[in-house]
């Protein structure tokens, strides 16, 4: 940068000379002259294309110099800030288009804004590095879902009374602690890869270099969806297109819970991707619940056929309150209720299972009763027995309850248990082998009552649960309404105020 | 009112067109159907085929989710304005350097902008869009709808001035006042609009404005709060209905 000519304007005074550093390329500039460059760039001021004339009254060299000098002096008042056209045009008389052209010329030739900070940058583009990190359309890096997810999956099936829903995933579950801006996460060890160590395997996995090295040695098998190894979950897959999603949904409806079949159906995605995608869909959880419900009833059927006795289920469910009322360890029933306290899947699950005609009445009743806590079940059983007892004195006999016991309101759960236990026991007896004839009649009657009691219990439980859900919904609605009102209130009030002032103005001006 | 003789400032006659670099027509649409209102302002290239208008109207209605009965009215409005433009097109107009003050007084979404500046309607190289762009950049206006609205407003004012001069000429010709009359007429009519150039550009004047007048030619931008926007909308509508 060459030191310039003096900074003083062309006035007569002699202020202390300030040195301005101007770009070498504009060294031709002189305050008291108009350079050839200027003439060529702005011919309008100089009488046309030739630049040698004197222009018109409003566009001539004298005027040009006034404009130019003003702008440059204005800039030099504070060389560090960027002078904008809008600032100068308010002080200059003349066509803005022409002034704009002049300003642009000065800017381009380095006579102004040469040491100012650069102008506002263009809309931020993502730096290249981020293109990799942020994984646009083509890539999707997902860390390993929580390990429990797949354990649940495989744990399902026989031995459990109800199918265990995998814990519903939240954003943080699916994406772990990954946030935009962090490095890619290795598909195998789930850790952030330090820059430059990302390797891409054949399948499109992104792995850190350590795992890459290990993988090389262990070979192909690890890359497949081993049940044993959960790394398979981290397939860096392509984005789901609409067609693929459609095929996935078809597969789910057709194959239900069998993810292998589903992933075969959707040829381009592996099973973990299918599962992940289903969860991400807005109704995915419902579908999962549906699927589970279906297999649920299948499960019960299996159990039934195993044990060959319907009524045993009643016994089992009724024995469960026993266990849990003692407040002991988490047993299967408790797990059932815990999981089934998650609302919507359960709702749908129930719906589906009750529609299935192959399930026996007792099974359905059992399903209903397991939807609430054992205390509720016990209370419902109490109420049911009591109500039946009210109906018909025979019922009381069937339940082997003394008058006294019956009248006491404090139906302890023991009684209920006894009642149920007796129910169960009698069923067992009945379905056992030969039954003495004279007892048969009684047995028959009592069985009816037992059935009715069971039905009533189930209904009671369902009703209790429904009420609970309804209350919840109502609270939710209230909350939402409140938040809506809260958001709308300020704008509403503002409008009100302005309307009021409007009205006042009108009435003030009106009659006048 | 003296006629300014500015030496080489001779009017030249050109075919009517927008006195800007791009010959784009400002179009303003304000359609109301069944209580729904569609207001819009944009620029149109008059050399586009008319079939474009229909597809534009349909696409706009679809994008804004307007019912289909908006389209005929939109169409009618746009075609009408274009036809008016085209009716001037055959005429000649005088192009001479004439600096007029243009005003901006707009509210776009929640940005209010008021401004005044000088524009040479004889400068066929002018570019309202570029001016609007510079203005928004310099004032750090982030709302992308502001720039185009300013450009359309400028064009509308230019269009009005240009069409006025053409119709003035037409009148003068009709009234058979002779050749010199048009110049006079257009001069005198426009005098109160255009700048008294002599004052500024004459030998004793200065093109640098006095500081105390700067505020007149400075843009004023105001950004309303979110809640206020609804109120402002409503009051405007009220006043426009009453007026």
TrEMBL record, chain A:
Q: List the SMART domains hit by this protein, alphabetically.
A: SANT
Region listing for Disordered, in residue ranges: 315-347
- GO MF annotation terms: DNA binding
Q: Which InterPro entries match?
A: SANT/Myb (IPR001005), SANT_dom (IPR017884), SMARCC_C (IPR032451), SWIRM (IPR007526)
Which GO cellular component terms are attached? nucleus
Instruction: Name all SANT domain ranges.
Output: 235-286
Please state every residue range assigned to the domain named Myb-like. Answer: 232-282
Q: What is this protein called?
A: SWI/SNF complex subunit SWI3A
Basic and acidic residues bias: where?
Answer: 331-345
* Sorted UniProt keywords: DNA-binding, Nucleus, Transcription, Transcription regulation
A Pfam family per the record: SWIRM
Question: Which parts of the sequence belong to the SWIRM domain?
Answer: 20-123
UniProtKB/TrEMBL annotation, chain B:
Question: Which species does this protein come from?
Answer: Zizania palustris (Northern wild rice)
**Record's protein name:** Bushy growth protein
Where can this protein be found? Nucleus
Source species, domain of life: Eukaryota
Q: Identify the keywords attached in UniProt to this record, alphabetized.
A: Nucleus, Transcription, Transcription regulation
* GO CC annotation terms, alphabetical: nuclear chromosome
Tell me the GO BP annotations in alphabetical order: chromatin remodeling
Family designation: Belongs to the SNF5 family.
Which InterPro entries does this UniProt record tie to the protein?
Answer: SNF5
């Amino acid at each position: 940068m060459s030191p310039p000519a003096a900074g003083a304007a062309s006035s007569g005074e002699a202020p202390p000379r300030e040195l301005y550093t101007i770009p070498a390329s504009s060294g031709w500039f002189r305050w008291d002259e108009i350079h050839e460059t200027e003439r060529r760039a702005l011919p309008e001021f100089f009488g046309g294309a030739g630049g040698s004339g004197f222009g018109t009254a409003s566009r001539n060299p004298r005027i040009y110099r006034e404009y130019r000098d003003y702008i440059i002096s204005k800039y030099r008042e504070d060389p560090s800030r960027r002078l904008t056209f809008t600032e100068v045009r308010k002080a200059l008389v003349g066509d803005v288009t022409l002034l704009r052209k002049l300003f642009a010329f000065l800017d381009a030739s380095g006579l102004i804004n040469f040491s100012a900070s650069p102008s506002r940058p263009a809309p931020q583009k993502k730096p290249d590095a981020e293109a990799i990190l942020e994984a646009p359309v083509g890539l999707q890096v997902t860390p390993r879902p929580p390990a429990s997810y797949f354990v649940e999956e495989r744990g399902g099936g026989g031995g459990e009374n109800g199918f265990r829903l995998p814990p519903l995933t939240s954003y943080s579950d699916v994406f772990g602690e990954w946030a935009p801006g962090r490095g890619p996460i290795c598909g195998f060890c789930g850790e952030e890869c330090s820059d430059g160590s990302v390797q891409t395997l054949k399948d499109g996995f992104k792995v850190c270099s350590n795992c890459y090295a290990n993988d090389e040695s262990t070979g192909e098998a690890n890359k497949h969806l081993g049940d044993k190894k959960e790394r398979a979950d981290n397939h860096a897959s392509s984005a789901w297109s609409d067609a693929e999603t459609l095929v996935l949904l078809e597969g789910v409806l057709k194959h239900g819970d069998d993810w292998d079949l589903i992933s075969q159906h959707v040829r381009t995605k592996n099973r973990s991707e299918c599962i992940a995608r289903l969860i991400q869909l807005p109704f995915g959880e419902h579908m999962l619940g549906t699927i589970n419900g279906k297999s649920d009833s299948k499960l019960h059927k299996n159990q039934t056929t195993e044990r060959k006795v319907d009524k045993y289920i009643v016994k089992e469910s009724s024995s469960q309150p026993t266990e849990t009322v003692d407040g002991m360890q988490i047993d299967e029933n408790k797990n059932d209720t815990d999981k089934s306290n998650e609302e919507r899947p359960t709702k749908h699950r129930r719906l589906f299972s009750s529609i299935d005609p192959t399930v026996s009445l007792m099974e359905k009743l059992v399903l209903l009763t397991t939807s609430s806590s054992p205390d509720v079940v016990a209370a419902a059983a109490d109420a049911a027995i009591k109500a039946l007892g009210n109906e018909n004195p025979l019922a009381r006999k069937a339940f082997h309850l003394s008058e006294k016991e019956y009248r006491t309101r404090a139906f302890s759960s023991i009684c209920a248990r006894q009642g149920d236990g007796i129910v169960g026991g009698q069923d067992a007896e009945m379905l056992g082998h030969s039954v003495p004839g004279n007892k048969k009649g009684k047995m028959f009657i009592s069985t009816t009552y037992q059935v009715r009691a069971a039905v009533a219990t189930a209904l009671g439980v369902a009703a209790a649960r429904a009420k609970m859900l309804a209350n919840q919904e109502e609270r939710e609605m209230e909350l939402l309404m409140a938040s809506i009102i809260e958001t709308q209130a300020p704008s509403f009030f503002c409008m009100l105020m302005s309307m009021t002032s409007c009205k006042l103005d009108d009435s003030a001006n009106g009659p006048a | 009112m003296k006629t300014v003789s500015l030496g080489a400032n001779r009017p030249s006659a050109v075919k009517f067109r927008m006195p800007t670099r791009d010959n784009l027509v400002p179009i303003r649409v304000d359609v109301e159907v069944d209580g729904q209102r569609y207001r819009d302002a944009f620029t149109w290239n008059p050399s586009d085929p008319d079939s474009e208008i229909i597809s534009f109207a349909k696409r706009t209605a679809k994008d804004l989710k307007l019912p289909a009965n908006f389209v005929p009215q939109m169409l009618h409005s746009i075609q009408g304005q274009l036809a008016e433009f085209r009716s001037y097109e055959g005429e000649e107009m005088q192009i001479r350097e004439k600096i007029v003050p243009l005003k901006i007084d707009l509210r776009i979404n929640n940005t209010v902008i008021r401004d005044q500046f000088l524009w040479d309607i004889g400068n066929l190289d002018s570019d309202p869009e570029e001016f609007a762009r510079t203005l928004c950049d310099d004032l750090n206006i982030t709302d992308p709808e502001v720039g185009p609205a300013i450009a359309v407003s400028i064009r509308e004012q230019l269009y009005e001035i240009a069409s006025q001069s053409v119709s003035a000429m037409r009148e003068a010709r009709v009234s058979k006042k002779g050749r010199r009359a048009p110049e006079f007429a257009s001069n005198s009519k426009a005098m109160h609009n255009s700048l008294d150039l002599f004052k500024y550009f004459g030998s004793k004047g200065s093109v640098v404005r006095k500081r105390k007048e700067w505020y007149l030619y400075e843009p004023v931008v105001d950004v309303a709060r979110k809640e206020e926007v609804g109120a402002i909308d409503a009051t405007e509508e009220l006043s426009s209905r009453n007026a």
